[in-house]
Amino acid sequence: MPTEKLLKLARLNRIISQEEIEGVAFGELELSMATFQDVVFNALTFSKTQFQQCTFLSCTFIDCQFVDCHFDTCTWHATTLQNSQFDNCTLIGSSFASCAQQNVTFEKSKAQRVALTQGEIKSFTFKNGKWLDSAFMQVQSESVLFAGSEMNNFVLNESDFEQVNIENCKVQRGLFLKCSFKDKDWNNLSWQACSFNESQFSNCVITEAQWQTNNFIAASFEKCQFNHCNLQQALFLKAKFNQVVFNTCQLTETIFNESNGQHTRFEHANADKSLWQDSEWLTSTWLDCKLAFSDWSRAQINGSTVKNCDFTAANWHKLAEDNTLWKKNNKKMLRKTDELQAKSEAEA
């Protein structure tokens, strides 16, 4: 009878309170359009329960376990989840708004079009599952881990990666917006078609990363090092670099337009067809780099050094540089490798 009464209240769009859940058997229950308010779920197991368009307002889940459950277009608002686990569950089109989650684990679960906004998360683990088309938006995070999962077309907004970690995941089309990365030592990361817009990298060492086609719009890098990384066709638009090293990296067709760099080094890099338009560089170095067909239009180079670089057919339209090794070395090499352009410059 309690279960039948609960289903009836859901059909009538009535608020379900603490009294109405007493004695309800949630196992294999199909629940649609139910609204729970100020309900405490304590040490309950939900097995194969189907939740469709259900709402949890100011509810509390303590020591609960969800096994083989399905959540479709459900809403958690100002709800607390504590010491709870989701095993082999599916969440689609659902949201957690202003919620508090502590010691919550998702194992072998799928989250698609799920949004977590303006809440607090502590000791949150999502492992061996799928995180698709989903987002963390302005969530205060502590000890968050994504591990062994597929992450595709997702958003992490204003996340501090001292508290958020991604380990052994297949990452594609992620937007890391206004995130901060500090003291990271990453090896062999393969994050494809991701954007790190307005994000900050500090004291990071990134080795053998496959980051081609990634975007770093208005990102900043402080005392970072890229070693043997694939950054082909990456977009560093309006980015800032300070004491950054690119060592033996693939930078073909990479864009540094409108970027600003100082004390930055490019060593043994293949940067053919790269773009440096309207960028500014102070006391920076290019050593043994391939820069054929690169474009330096309206760039400003001051106090910088270039040695043993190939600038075949590079474009120098309105390049502004001071009387440093850049001017003495680069222009000389350009005229050696591109006699036609050297002649046109002399006639101009």
UniProtKB/TrEMBL annotation:
<protein>
    <recommendedName>
        <fullName>Pentapeptide repeat family protein</fullName>
    </recommendedName>
</protein>
<dbReference type="Pfam" id="PF13599">
    <property type="entry name" value="Pentapeptide_4"/>
</dbReference>
<dbReference type="InterPro" id="IPR052949">
    <property type="entry name" value="PA_immunity-related"/>
</dbReference>
<dbReference type="InterPro" id="IPR001646">
    <property type="entry name" value="5peptide_repeat"/>
</dbReference>
